[in-house]
Design a protein that fits this description.
Layout (H helix, E strand, L loop, with lengths): L26 H7 L15 H30 L22 H9 L1 H7 L1 H10 L2 H18 L6 H19 L2 H6 L4 H12 L2 H15 L8 H23 L12 H13 L10 H8 L2 H29 L6 H8 L4
Helix pairs in contact: 1-12, 2-7, 2-9, 2-10, 2-11, 2-14, 3-7, 4-7, 5-7, 6-7, 6-11, 10-15, 14-15
Amino acid sequence: MAAKDSPLPKTHVSHVEDAGASPKESIVDIESKSHINTGLQDRANIDLDSPEARSLEPISTLYFFEYLDRGNVANAKLFGLSKGRNTPSGGVGPENQGLSASQREVVIMIFYVGLILFQVPGCIGYRIFSPSKWIAFGVCFWCITSMLQDVARNYSSLLVCRILLGAFEGLFGTGIVYYLSLWYHRTELGVRVFWYLGPTAIAGAFGGLIAYGVGHIDSKTPQWKWLFLIEALPGFGLGLFCLYWLPDRPMKNSRFQGRFQDVAVARYQREAIDKTGPIQRKHVVWAITDWRLYMQAMIYVPTGALLSSISGFLPTIVSELGYKSSAKANLMTGNNL
């Protein structure tokens, strides 16, 4: 492991003339004075603990709640969501009839229509608005939409909620990699993206456990409504918290002070990310006329279908194995970790 005070080659660094540093003070000087050691000093890299707590950990938690709200419709189906609205379950089906198998499939898959259509606007929003406000906007409104499923009275209203849920999740999740690139070097970004996407592996397991607990609620309110409410409220609260916690950009509202701010600015100025100036109309035109965008969408649609087949249909498959209790069947879906 490299020594803490080992000299660094000057050819790998540039100079910083703001953020409290002297005109000739190099990145190496700022980083060494900050007393932050990551074992990467041979390349003049610093792994700040503060960005981990300020940005990576909150958005990883948000993505965990996003995946819960995305897939809980399958757990809610076992609690009577797809049954008739005049039945004791108070579902969204017509009168005493439940939704057909094809209608249930549409309810699950139509989420990806909103998700794909709003991915490009989501990336643009991160460039135009403050990231903390944009993230809070997407998170709070997807949680509100998830809770609005409780008042869905028919099949059409449920479809609208599912499309909007995908749209707001698209506004949040698509630009996260760009947001992380403001704080981490490209050599560090891969690990951070891994930790951002990591919660998807455990969200399915926790979704089944939460549904199992909800299945033991004894109330006049249908259990599937409790499920949407319980899984959406924490995300809504965390989304509001992001307004006051998440940093925006190193050069503006970084929420860091002292040497942490100096280091954040120094690291930011070493990368070419986000240095093309404000977004212009021609940039939007270039994006929407690029054939690669539509090729990516064509690839993502079947990929989304494969991913949703697990979270979307596993509870129903498990329940058909002979579990008479909906709560027990949902618990068994937690084993897909």
